[in-house]
C-alpha cells in the first residue's frame, strides 16, 4: 500500500510541476538560425494570432530525408511570432491570405535524447522528445507550462510527435 501511494504521489508531482528538473535539460541552440535549416513557415494552427517558423538540425534533416525515425540528438526549433494587427486589433492577412509576421514572442525547442520520455506519464510522453521555451534573446521562460506542449504533441505517435514531420521527410 505504501509503495503504491509513493508511485501515485510521484506521478502527481511530475504531472503538476511539469517535470521542472527535466525542463532544464533542453538547452537553447545558440546558432540555430545559421546552422539549422528553416524547413517550414506557416500560420500557427493552435493560435489564430500567431505565425511559426520551423528549423531542424542536420541530424533530424538527414534522417528525415532518408525516411528514417529522427534519432537522438534531433532538434527542432520554432520561432513563434505575433501576427500583425490593424488599428481595430484584427489580424492582417497578405494577398495570399496568410498572416503577416510581427514581433517574435518566443522560441520553442524540441530535443530528442534517449530515455527522456521516461520522466513523464504516458499521457504526456512524446517518445524521447522534450520541450523548452525561451525568450527571443535566448533566456529560458521558466514559468511556461511545458505540459501544454507535451499534451498537445503526445497523441502524434504516427508522426514522431511532430506536426511538421512530412516537411522534414521525403
Describe the structure.
The chain is an alpha+beta fold and 170 residues long. The protein has one domain: Cytochrome P460 (Chalcone isomerase, 3-Layer(bba) Sandwich), CATH 3.50.70.20. Helix content is 26%, strand content 24%. The chain has helices at 2-17, 20-23, 32-35, 58-65, 146-153, 165-168, and strands at residues 37-43, 50-56, 75-83, 101-112, 129-134. A five-stranded antiparallel β-sheet has the order 1-2-3-4-5.
Supply the CATH superfamily name: Cytochrome P460
Helix/sheet category = alpha+beta
Order of helices and strands: HHHEEHEEEHH
- From the spread of the alpha carbons, the general shape counts as globular
Overall average pLDDT: 87
CATH topology, what is it called? Answer: Chalcone isomerase
Main sheet: strands, sense, barrel: 5 strands, antiparallel
Order of strands in the sheet with most strands = 1-2-3-4-5
Low-confidence stretches: 1-23
What is the CATH architecture term? 3-Layer(bba) Sandwich
Topology:
Elements: H1 2-17, H2 20-23, H3 32-35, E1 37-43, E2 50-56, H4 58-65, E3 75-83, E4 101-112, E5 129-134, H5 146-153, H6 165-168
Antiparallel strand pairs: 1-2, 2-3, 3-4, 4-5
Summarize the structure.
The protein has 170 residues and is α+β, with helices and mostly antiparallel strands. It is 26% helix and 24% strand.
